[in-house]
Amino acid sequence: MSTMQPRLDYSRLSPDLFKKYLDFSMAFTMDESLALLIDIRASQLNGCAFCVDMHIKQAKLHGERELRLHHIAIWRESQLFTPKERAALAWTEALTRIEPTGASDASYEEVSAHFTDEELSQLTFRIAAINGWNRLNVAFRNVPGSKDKLFGLDKAGLN
Fold this sequence. Notes:
This protein is mainly α. The protein has helices at about 10-15, 15-25, 30-45, 50-60, 65-70, 85-95, 105-110, 115-140, 150. The chain has one domain: AhpD-like (Up-down Bundle).
């Protein structure tokens, strides 16, 4: 068990910024199943235990198959994801772990083949949003599961 303690409650200390960022994060109109795959993968890459825990539970409540949740970490080798989901996961990785040369033309062309310009814009904003949440929760060490009751995630049955 981890001995890391939470550092501070940013939602309480900066309530206006927290609310605006939450409003921004809730404004997306993209498919919820795809959004949760993106959130989980970015959170895995960023080592954000709080967000991995939360988004796995959200996905479970949304009806996501358990095996697919286990396969997100190995999506490149898995046959459980559609070409569109695979393109979104690749774009998520490209923008979460930005190379010194930026997002490659090949990555952009791959994702552009599966998304309209508007969808790609939404997708990219979603990736930016989850990366921000990951950084907040990693910085201040939010404890996985600590807000389950508040967010209704206790209903996922994954305690």
